[in-house]
Each structure stands twice: as C-alpha cells, then as structure tokens.
Amino acid sequence: MVPATTARLIKMVPKMATLTTLLATVGSSMATLMFVWSVISQYLPYELHHIIRKLKLRLKDLLYPYVKITINEFRDKALSNRRSDAYVAVEAYLSSINTSKTSKRLKADMEHHNSNLALSIDEYQTVNDEFQGAKLEWVSGKSSSKALDKEQISFYRLIFHNKHREMVTQSYLQHVIERGKEIRKRNRPKRIYTNVCRSSGSASSSSASSWVYSVFHHPASFETIAMDEEKKKEIIEDLMAFSEGKDYYARIGKAWRRGYLLYGPPGTGKSTLIAAMANMLKYDVYDLELTAVKDNTELRKLLVETSSKSIIVIEDIDCSLHLTGQRKKQEKAEKSRLEDEKKSEKAAGVTLSGLLNFIDGLWSSSCDGERIIVFTTNHVENLDKALIRRGRMDMHIELSYCGFEGFKVLAMNYLEIETHQMFDTIERLIGEVKITPADVAENLMPKTLLDDPDKRLSNLIGALEKAKEKALEKAKAKADTEKKAKQLEENVEPTIKESKVLDEDQTMQSKAM
Ligand SMILES: Nc1ncnc2c1ncn2[C@@H]1O[C@H](COP(=O)(O)OP(=O)(O)OP(=O)(O)O)[C@@H](O)[C@H]1O
Ligand SMILES: [Mg+2]
C-alpha cells in the first residue's frame, strides 16, 4: 500500500512540471524582449528615451513608494578618522527613542572621560519612529565602499513614504540632528573651557587665544551654598525660567541670553555660585581670561567659538582690564597701562567698547542657543555703568558676609549637624562681626583626624572672638585718630584766628598813621 502523503506527492509531480515549463517560457520571453528592446532603443530619439525613463520611474514609485536616506559613519576614512557629526547625532537620537525596549541587539560603548555606558542599536536592527503623524523607519547596517578603501563602514538608513519627503527633509532630519546633539551634550561630562595664548609659530611670533577644556568636576550645589534663602530661591527660579524659556524669548523677540553680576568681598562664594549654577543647569563653563586676549577681534572670535548651553564667566572684571580707566583717567592707571604695553605686544588690548561689543554680540543672534554671562567683582563701584546696566547684566547679586542662616548651611555641610548648644553663642557673635563664609568654612574643617564637631565649633567661636577683638581695636584706633585730628584742628584754628586778629590790628595801625 502507498501512504496517503506519497500518493499526494505523486499527484503533484505533473503540476510542478507544468510550473517549471511556464517559468522557463516566461524567462526566455523576457530575455528575448530585453534583447529586442536594447536593439530598438539604439534607434529611438532622445525625447522618447526621456519619456520612457520618466514612465519607468513613475512605475517604480507606484510599486515601491519609499525613499531612503543613508547617513554614513565616515565621509572619507582615508582623510580623517573622525566620525561624521550627522552619524553621531543620529546614533544618540536613536538610542534615546527607547532602543532598549524595541531593539533586541544593542551596542555598548564607553566614551572618553565618561563613566556611563552609552547604548546604541547594533548592525541590521530596525527602529521605528513617528513624527508629525508620519511613520518612519531607521535601519542600521554596514556596507563596503570603494571610496573608503573597500572598508566596511556603518550607516543608518532612514526609510519613509514618498508623501512625507518634504516634511522629512525640512523638519524631521533637523529635529533628529538637534535632539541628537542635545542628548550627546547632556550625557557627556560638563566641561570647563579656558582661553590660552598659543604661539602661531610664525616668524613674527604672533600668538592667538583659543579655548582648551578639561572635565568640570565641582561639587558645589545650591543646597550647599550659604546665602540668604530668599535670594537663593530667587536665583534658582530665575535660572529655571531662563533655561526653559526658549519659546518665551522667541515670542518677545529677545535673544536667549541672561547676564548675572556677582559682587561682594573675597571669599563670599561668587565662584562657588557659578559652579552651582553650572551644575544645576548642566551647562559648560567658559572661563574667559581677558588678559590673555590680544584685542577686540580676538575676543569676538572666542565668543563665536562658544557653544550653546554654556556660562561665559569673566572673574574679577575690574582687575582684568582698564575698564575703569575710561571714566577715571588716573595717572597711575595710565602709567601701568603703558608699561604693560611695552612688556608685551598686546598693544591694543581689549577695551571697554570691545567688551561691550562682545556682550552685545552675545546678545545678538550671531550665536544660537542659550547662553549666560557672569561677571564677578570685589569692587562693583569701580565698574563702568554701561557695562553693568540692566539688559547687559540683568540680575545683580550681592554676596556678603556670613549670617547665622548661612552658618547653619555650612554646619550642615561640614559637620552634618542641624543644632548644637554652641549655636547660641555663634549666633550672637556672628551678628557682631563680619566673617566671610570662606573663613567660617575654614574653621569648620577638621585640623586633625580627632577633631570632632565640638572642637571645630569652638575653633569657630575662637575665630569669631578674635575677629571681634580686632574689630574693637580697629574701631578704637579709628576713634583715637579722629579725636587727635579734631584736637589738632582745634589747636590750629585759634592760632589762625590770633594771627588774623594781629594782621587786622597792624592794618588798622598803618591806616591810622
Ligand atoms: N556662600 C558660600 N557657601 C558655601 N561655601 C562658601 C561660600 N563662600 C565661600 N565658600 C567657601 O569658600 C571657598 C572660597 O569661596 P569662593 O572662591 O567662591 O569665593 P569668591 O567670592 O569667589 O572669592 P574671590 O572674590 O576671592 O574670588 C569656597 O571653596 C567655599 O568652600
Ligand atoms: Mg572667585
């Protein structure tokens, strides 16, 4: 007996033979057609060729209405080993759209200076995206390219329906690149840039200032800053409103910038506040050393090189330049300026108007994205009013001596205590003397491994008492000097009066004669 399946197979054999014959017939007809077409097409006029090509494209569009855009990892590996910016941005973007959930094969990499593993989709994986109601598909792959020395290079390919072509090329790709760049910046450690003078190596030994960076690790935060709580809250709210104010700034037609002037005695936390601002907003810091800038043109060049989401800082602005000299043309300042010019070739230097242009340039649309500029000074009264007027420096923040509230923040930071029996004495003394948060912090630091909170608080009380004594001595010395000056004035006045009377007598006598 023949089993049922075998019987069915035997029945199918003639059908399969018919199919094979059919395929062979179609194949040979196609080959004949193509041969005939290639012969005929040689004799067709150019216009007809053109029409046929257009028809072919339209037919292809009908059968396959999708567009593909490929973004390669390298433009020309032979020329540079640098990955293309677009590829890197797409990689970051794709990793952000929930890659770990949709893709089963991922790549993990650890970037230089970054302790976090960055995930991205592995080769030949697909990620689906949606934008303005359109469905889009990204595919990762590898291809060998003649241009790239036949090396295999990775690529991302975007596939979408032809009807979305305009939207994709005009909005979606820009959105992907912007978001990708943003994600990359957010994920990498913050940087602190400083401008250094570099010799160009030419015979004229000219030098130019350029930015160099290192990783920004500063533990400062708003929680650990000792300052008036109300003021602290106001600054935080101002910064948050700024960082989230893209649409608002666009609506009111103002560049997305904000200027902060921090002033106060040394050691009151100006630099610490800048670090706290950078940490909170996750912005890079550009620490601009004006004395290393040759002239106004170079200053402008440095400005253009700054990136968005950054804080540009000019510390001790009154010491950096002869900015005050424009209003107070003191001989001393002028003399030192001339000496400086002789010493270096920075003959022109950065002037007040150069700096004003720099800030206004920053405020203009020549640089995109948000930027904050911060000036610090110990002597706000010395600064030119034009430099710090509202609109250039929007918020003026005074950092002052340590109050009891500030001390409590420092006690929490350094000793991890909220209250202590010695706090009452400290509150009384801190109200009587001027002590900077830096000095308070120094006293709360352990001097030996055995120093407990009691010891450190008594160190502070000792320092406060000493400061009080000193202040009293100073006040006494001042009072003494004033008293002596007054006495001297009183002694001199009668003598002048007497001599006046004598003079008058002599005149009377001579008139009488
Ligand atoms: N308000 C503060 N809150 C917390 N710590 C502070 C504060 N002020 C100063 N300190 C401490 O003192 C040190 C010096 O402070 P900082 O450098 O911020 O002062 P500054 O105002 O910038 O001084 P300068 O005018 O000399 O540049 C900081 O490292 C920090 O430890
Ligand atoms: Mg400082």
UniProtKB/TrEMBL annotation:
Its cofactor is Mg(2+). Residues 473-513 are annotated as: Disordered. It catalyses: ATP + H2O = ADP + phosphate + H(+). One of its GO terms (biological process) is response to stress. Keywords: ATP-binding, Hydrolase, Magnesium, Nucleotide-binding. InterPro entries: AAA+_ATPase (IPR003593), AAA_N_dom (IPR025753), At3g28540-like_C (IPR058017), ATPase_AAA_core (IPR003959), ATPase_AAA_CS (IPR003960), Mitochondrial_chaperone_BCS1 (IPR050747), P-loop_NTPase (IPR027417). The keyword Cell membrane does not apply. Residues 256-403 form the AAA+ ATPase domain. CDD domains: RecA-like_BCS1. It comes from the Eukaryota. GO terms for molecular function: ATP binding; ATP hydrolysis activity. Residues 473-503 have a biased composition (Basic and acidic residues). Belongs to the AAA ATPase family. BCS1 subfamily. This is AAA+ ATPase domain-containing protein.
